[in-house]
Each structure stands twice: as C-alpha cells, then as structure tokens.
Write a structure and sequence with these properties.
Layout (H helix, E strand, L loop, with lengths): L1 E4 L5 H4 L1 H10 L1 E6 L2 E9 L7 E6 L17 E6 L14 H15 L4 E8 L7 H15 L5 E6 L4 H4 L12 H17 L3 E4 L19 H8 L21 E2 L19 H6 L20 E4 L15
Parallel strand pairs: 1-4, 1-9, 3-10, 4-5, 5-6, 6-7, 7-8
Antiparallel strand pairs: 2-3
C-alpha cells in the first residue's frame, strides 16, 4: 500500500505532530469526504506501507524527526512556485522555502525530493516572461537538489472558481500551454532537470515533457530496491497517471489559503480547521462521534518480489 500524505491538505506543514503520533500508534482514521460518518481504519505498520508520498509547501517541522521514519520508504512532492501573497497568502517567503528545500534534499537525497512548479497561472502580472525568468532562476538554484520537476496548468473547479473570480486570468489555450512547455523544457535541459506533467489532458511530448506520475511505482522501486505490483488509481481523474494510494488527509483543512487550491471548498472552514485539530486523535480533524461507523480498510504490501535487486 502507498500512503498519500496528502493531496487533500499539507500534513508536513500543519499536522506533523499528529502524523508522527499516527506512525507511532500504527494506524489512522480517515473520514470519507462524501459520507462523513463513514470512517476507515488504515493500517500504517511498516509491513503493509510500501511508501509514503508527502505533498507539501513547507516540511520544515518534519526535518528533525525524519529518523522516526527509518522503517519506511518515502519521498516528497515539494511545491515551490514564484507567486506572491496575492495567490498564496499564507505561504512563507520563497527564499525561506527554497532553503528548506535544500536542507531536506541534503538530508534525504535529491532523488526523494521532487520539485513541483504548479499550477502554472497566467495573468497580467504572471505572464509568460515572468514565468520564463522565475523558472530559470529557480531551476538554477534548485537543480543541484532535485532531479525532477513536475508541472501542471491551472484547472478551474467549483472549489476554486470563486477565489479566482477577481484575478485577471489569461486563458490557457493549447498554444499558450505548448509555448510555456517548450520554454520550461528548454530551461530545464540546461540544468539537467527531468520535467513531467501532472494530470494534463494535453500531450506535451513534442515539447519534451511527457506525462508523469506523482504517485510513481517506478520511483518507489528505485528508492526501495524492489518492484511493486500496483495498478493505476481509478479514484483520480482519467488524465491522472498516478498509481493507487490511500490518502490520509482531509479536505478544507489547509491554512495556506492558496486561491487556486482545489482541496479547500470553503476558505473560512479551512482557516478554522486547526481549531478542531487534536494531535492525539486518530482523525486529522475532530474526534470519533456516536454516529460514526469505523471499518477497517484491507491493506497489504504490493511488493512483487521479496528479493531485492539492483537498478
């Protein structure tokens, strides 16, 4: 089983104490986002967890405790964008974030730190020239600390449409996407960075950017030294190439407040989420109530061959 921590919220930034408590206890409760009284008990023991994939904008509060994950394989999808507080109101200044990125990479190795430059948003302020300059500057600075960059283009959902309604967005036509992709691919090549796309319908292969996987069994196999027998995640969008995983986060709980975020349906609820967080609870937010139904989720390792092999 692969654990996603998490597409739904930033666990390393805001819930690290809770996460390490769950690792110590060996299990976690996860509410069904569409049926809140249905709660899954997810086994977090090393014997069934093949890898943990962290998705974050700031893992600083985890760095001095990574030794507690010595029995697990893991890697980080680390988002570093060039936007200001107009789009990312509660994200730390980027020079600080990039220093954290480097510190993490020095601690666990560059293969286990993936740089996410996403989503790509075009506005009067953040135009193509802005992205060309910003990506070049950031690629030069971060390339010694990572080997892969993940890019995607802004998607408008019901959850973020209202937040973005006052932003003067420039339409991301196929032509503009291809232009941005060629620019990014060209710059990345200078710094020997592999670039892949995330859940994009458009084919960017001719721009040097193939479809990628954020939950990637091939990367996990290289990190862990064994192959996994794991299928595509059918719970994600059709264009998502990720392998199946179990997400232990919750929607509407990330205080970063990024205007483009798809995981916060209600910004007010998201800002108040930490008030209802109890690091001692098996749930990331709140506690088990009398109407909750707890069901143990079947979990097992997906290792294809127990014998280790060299890549």
């Amino acid at each position: 089983m692969i654990v996603s921590a998490s597409r739904r919220t930033d666990i390393p930034a805001f819930f690290p104490d809770w996460f390490f408590k769950r690792i110590k206890e060996g299990y976690v409760y996860v509410r069904n986002p569409y049926n809140p009284n249905q709660v899954s008990l997810v086994d977090l023991s090393p014997s069934v967890v093949d890898c943990i994939v962290f998705v974050t904008k700031n893992p600083m509060r985890m760095l001095d405790r990574l030794n507690l994950l010595s029995q697990y394989h893991y890697y980080f999808q680390f988002t570093v964008t060039p936007y200001g507080q107009d789009l990312e109101p509660n994200v730390l200044p980027k020079d600080i974030i990039m220093d954290i990125f480097k510190k993490l990479s020095r601690s666990i190795g560059k293969e286990r730190v993936i740089w996410r430059y996403d989503p790509i948003i075009l506005t009067d302020t953040y135009d193509m020239k802005f992205h060309a300059d910003a990506f070049a500057r950031m690629a030069k600075d971060l390339s010694p600390y990572t080997g892969r960059c993940v890019v995607s283009f802004l998607d408008i959902y019901k959850s973020n449409a209202w937040s973005l309604s006052d932003i003067n967005l420039i339409e991301l036509s196929s032509l503009r996407m291809k232009e941005a992709a060629r620019m990014i691919s060209g710059i990345a090549g200078v710094y020997s960075l592999e670039v892949v796309s995330c859940a994009e319908v458009i084919d960017l292969d001719d721009c040097g950017i193939p479809h990628g996987k954020c939950i990637d069994e091939e990367l996990i196999s290289r990190i862990a030294g064994y192959r996994l027998n794991i299928k595509k995640d059918r719970t994600q969008r059709a264009e998502c190439c990720c392998n199946a995983s179990v997400d232990i986060g919750a929607y509407n709980t990330c205080p970063h407040g990024c205007l483009y975020c798809y995981a916060n349906f209600n910004s007010l609820i998201a800002r108040k989420a930490l008030e209802f967080h109890n690091a001692e609870s098996p749930l990331i937010i709140g506690n088990i109530g009398p109407n909750d139904r707890i069901t143990e989720r079947k979990a097992s390792s997906c290792i294809e061959h127990q014998d280790r092999f060299a890549f």
